[in-house]
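Support reply, case 0932

Customer input (verbatim):
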Amino acid sequence: MGGSRYLGAHLVGSLLRHGHVERVLAIDSVKPSPQHRRRMRDAEFVRLDPQSPRLQGILREAEIDTVVHAGLHHTDFAPGGRAAVKEANIMGSMHVIAACGRASTVQRFVLISSTTVYGSSGVDPAMFTEDMAARRQPSGGIPLDHLSVEGYVRGMSRKRPDIDVTILRMPAILGLPEPTVFGELLAPSIAPVLAGYDPRIQLLHPQDALDALVRATTGAPPGTYNVAGEGVLTLSQAIRRAGHVPLPVLAPTFKLASRLLSSEGLRDIGSSQLQYLRFGRVVDTTRMRTEFGFTPQYNTEEALHAYLVDSGTEPLVTRKTLERTTARVAKLLPAPLAEMLQESMDRTVAELEARSAMAERAEEATT
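Our regenerated output:
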């Protein structure tokens, strides 16, 4: 399910190269792009709404033994906004899970969930393990969607204990066609951040997400696993490493600042996403390494660097560019905000110059 999306299409192509996989059937409600269709190679594709009653028959007739649900939305930025996303996440998933539960051939079910199920609050632990729950239960939005879908999957598992269930909880994956809140904040030269907060961020490289998904699909031990790169960055660090300037703004003015400074996506940011921009979220990945048997190739910092290079965000902007952009925006701001922007710009330049000097020393040491 979700075969037309990046991870779904790439998974299909990877499974077709796997020696023990006999047949791969990709299902989605929309046609894959030409690029994703090429990734899927010669796989069969069925265009089908997940809520269609035909789904159970297709699973049975094709004798499908493993189902991967890669169709969850991870932000509300999709066409149709929150209402359409909720409909797809909740109703679509309920029908998929029910069909799998009734199909006697299904032996394994894999769900791509997210670390948003842990929520974000000021009373969170330093790291969430898989056995922990959100300290403050999500009241809506994507976190509640994913938490609900995980509950439906566990309900199916109780009724069908013969089905091995694997749930992969992933953080933001930069570089996918589906935008993320974090990725949207890395785009503008001056990025709004919530004053007084600097949330901790974990990332996962797309290749690592795909590799973990292949492992879950082809026989790794079932269970619930946090899958994330090692290490942590703060939001302000990431913005500065992109060569951009974080501008602290008060929560009531964040959406206004987003309209002025950021891309279209952040205009409709929800309350759960604002909580994430306050407190961030970090998960423990011990079980991923010791039980699931997987270690990502990229840590959080390397995943960020790869994204900045691949997306064209680099080369980093120069001091002159920063000063010119900062001066232009500062004219539009009240004096206190303009001063904060100038201080942030100075810190960004200092960090960039220090990193540049370190890179030059490292290059000299290798020559």
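We compared this against your earlier run and they match. Two observations from our side: The first strand starts at residue 25 and ends at 28. The chain has two domains: 6-178+201-229+281-310, 319-366. Please reopen the case if you see a mismatch on your end.
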